[in-house]
Design a protein that fits this description.
By secondary structure, the chain is mostly beta strands. Helices cover about 10% and strands about 40% of the residues. It folds into 2 domains: about 1-125, YerB-like fold; about 140-205 and about 230-295, no CATH class. Pfam families: DUF3048 (PF11258), DUF3048_C (PF17479).
Length: about 300
């Protein structure tokens, strides 16, 4: 599970390797910025870039998905939490060779990348168990859900200069990612977000927005209450051009997040890759026009 930066936008985009990920978590890190945690399970990427620092939410997610966290160091308080929870399953650029963590200008925000296959080899040599994890909790079905709500697109906005939109593509059956441009003045128009390794626009089978409680210690230090959520929390799901209102919960610290539809039955995702946005509970979610949805991020 590799940390991928979304800022600084100019030198750090387009990202590398996100199209190879089975699962990507997106969450807020302060100062109107977001960051990604990419899970590589079914296939490897020769380059996940740019690698950035760890956050307090990371050890929660890594334990739930039985992963190894690869990150570009962290604030001292964050690093202590990461090492306490993950031990040898936490790999910082400060204590790993090349490969798996390589690149010039290692002090730079965009100077380091990760070879995911080499992460497996590195951790195995250091005694980290590399068996098939138990990831029960996520269900998949080719059959679209029964709903009258169309989900042609969904915009996630932190501020005008940080927003991303998913637009459903009938031909591929996936949602294509758009992102604000920093090269066309202060209007920040949306442009296709491509993977620099393939030159193709990011395409995901499922887009999930779950609403969770953020804890703000200061404007750059946040935690998110994912663990020990035994009650149903709100979530919305986009697949097959449809939107489904539902719920999520995480009663077990060593099992994946569970998803449910409005009736409380397990929500079946579309087979393929999934992008999960962790939005604050105060975020506004509405339909700007038929089939066009938006999530305006906010925390208390």
């Amino acid at each position: 599970m590799i940390k991928v930066s979304n800022f600084p936008a100019g030198p750090g985009r387009p990202h590398a390797g996100l199209s190879y990920a089975d699962l990507v978590f997106e969450y807020y890190i302060g100062e109107y910025m977001n960051r990604f945690l990419a899970v590589f399970y079914g296939q490897d990427t020769p380059k996940a870039w740019p690698l950035r620092s760890g956050r307090l939410i990371d050890p929660q997610l890594v334990n739930m998905y039985h992963g190894v966290l690869v990150y570009g160091s962290a604030d001292e308080r964050v690093d202590e939490k990461i090492l306490t929870e993950l031990g040898m399953r936490a790999i910082s650029n400060l204590n790993a060779p090349c490969p798996p963590i390589c690149g010039e200008l290692t002090h730079s925000a965009t100077g380091v990348y990760v070879d995911s296959a080499s992460v497996t080899e590195f951790t195995s040599r250091h005694g980290v168990e590399n068996t098939r994890p138990d990831l029960r909790g996520m269900l998949f079905s080719e059959t679209p859900p029964q709903t009258s709500q169309y989900g042609a697109s969904v915009l996630v906005q932190y501020i005008r200069w940080n927003r991303g939109e998913w637009r459903y593509d009938d031909q591929s059956g996936k949602y294509l990612r758009w992102i604000e441009s920093w090269d066309q003045g202060d209007e920040y128009p949306l442009i296709p977000l491509v993977d620099q390794l393939t030159g193709e626009q990011l395409a995901f089978s499922n887009v999930v927005i779950l609403f969770a409680n953020y804890i703000e210690y200061n404007y750059r230090l946040h935690d998110v209450e994912i663990w020990d959520n035994t009650e149903m929390q709100r979530a919305v799901f986009f697949r097959d051009g449809l939107m489904v209102d539902g719920f999520w919960r995480a009663p077990l610290r060593d099992h994946p997040i569970q998803f449910f539809n409005q009736q409380g039955l397990p929500m079946q995702l579309k087979p393929g890759n999934t992008w999960v946005v962790v939005a604050g509970k105060s975020s506004e979610f509405n339909q700007s026009s038929p089939g066009q949805w938006q999530c305006l991020f906010d925390i208390p």
